[in-house]
Design brief:
Layout lengths: L1 E6 L4 H12 L4 E8 L3 H11 L3 E4 L14 E4 L3 H9 L3 E4 L7 H10 L2 E4 L2 H18 L3 E3 L2 H10 L7 E8 L9 H5 L3 H5 L8 H9 L1 H14 L6 E5 L5 E7 L4 E5 L5 H9 L13 H4 L14 H11 L3 H17 L7 H12 L8 H19 L4
Parallel strand pairs: 1-2, 1-5, 2-3, 3-4, 5-6, 6-7, 8-9
Antiparallel strand pairs: 8-10, 10-11
Bound molecules: nicotinamide-adenine-dinucleotide and magnesium ion.
The site of magnesium ion has 4 residues, from helix 6.
Length: 381
Amino acid sequence: MRTLAILGATGSIGTQTLDIARRYPDRIKVDCLVVHSSAEKLFELVREFRPSVAAMTKQPDSIPEDLHFCQWFFGEDCSSRALKAAKSQDALCAIVGIAGLDAVWTALDVCERVLLANKEALVTGGPLVTANAARLNKPLLPVDSEHSAIFQCLQARQGNPVRRLILTASGGALRTWDKARIAKATVDEVLAHPTWKMGRKITVDCATMLNKGLEIIEAYHLFGLPEDKIDAIVHPQSIIHSMIEFEDGATLAQMGYPDMRGPIGYALGYPERLPYGAKPLDFASLAQLTFEAPDTERFPCLNLARAALRDSDSAPIVLNGANEVAVDAFLNRYIPFGAIPAIIESALNICPTKQINNIDDVYETDAMARRAALDALGRFL
Ligand code: NAD
Ligand code: MG
């Protein structure tokens, strides 16, 4: 039996993690639940899982009488206070955005293993987070499907060097659209992801393809290969979740129908696998798997991410902060979809390179990026 904290428990990843936990009550004890603002949903989960700690950034008017058995925390820093109180063995970090970095940072200190869905924590805090994980000798287990796929393929490595990582990308909701139409895509069109059902922010990132850029940065930090050895290929069926290539050209792929319970379960059970009722692949009905090179002309965010990764430790923080501002503005229908890459690029041009020595430097750079993005955003209102 292992105890588990779930940060972002009401989200897409959080909900699927709870689905696995329900199937393994004698292996997984959920003892800490953290969410942003959905009080009623959290109350239901606390009733069902009876964790010792629960937390919300937004304080509800009251806590129902029957839920007083649990220790409650509120406020912006509730996730790290909750983690310290619960001291769970595993922390599944699935808060969206840099808002989740604090939880990842604390989880490395107080938990035995960190199961990481929150890619923005690595994009922004990558060098610090991985150095801390190494210093504390704590495993950082990937939950993002591409990184889980690579991690699974790496189990067959046996000390051999890896020549290339190949991340697959669905291509997002606008994959086949021309540039003029992409620029005017509506929120509903962008949120209609062809293969994965996910939170809104990551679904927009898939449509700009910045998601793949963030994942290249994430892979760089998790697996330590240089940027030019991390490729991305569009694979619309989302059956191959990613690949690794050895020096003799042999390429290993991890495959399955798209279902995040696969990578979540792999991280939760690692090194054991936790079956969750996945359908076996039916190759005859799949008939064909197709691939295409990413079109960086129609989807410029991929190259912005690569350039930021090559540039400095601060540029990926700027990339991420500007994107969070732009995506939020798009989802609130303030700016057109086509403004997102322009706002990110503008923030990257305006913000000077900063030395990143500690977590405060990360937050300062993020704040600078947000100011630059808000300035740039004004042009599109
Ligand atoms: P989501 O929007 O569905 O859920 C986010 C969760 O985080 C919610 O429970 C919300 O209450 C909570 N939250 C938001 N801000 C918070 C804050 N400041 N403090 C505490 N809790 C907060 O998002 P998601 O799709 O589940 O994605 C979560 C993370 O996992 C993202 O970083 C995303 O990139 C990554 N990820 C998601 C998927 C997927 O299939 N959904 C796949 C790969 C990676
Ligand atoms: Mg992914």
